[in-house]
Design a protein that fits this description.
single chain; 76 residues; mainly alpha; elongated
Length: 76
Amino acid sequence: MTAKRGYSPRIGASNTVFLSVRLPQGAAQLITTYASLTGQSRNQLVIGLLEVGLVAYLKAENAFLEAISSLNSRVP
């Protein structure tokens, strides 16, 4: 699932970040199918998946850092 932009985005024009993603063919087909069934664009769907993954990662990281902190506070 890759596409070439026919234009070059202006750097600093907004808070938008452009990210090119190359997915395996199977994953790209699943995203395309799900997007067409739900009426979302593939971009919207991928953004949602990235956001959910980022939230899960940050929660796990916070739990890990809290565990390390609690272990450090026990060591004399």
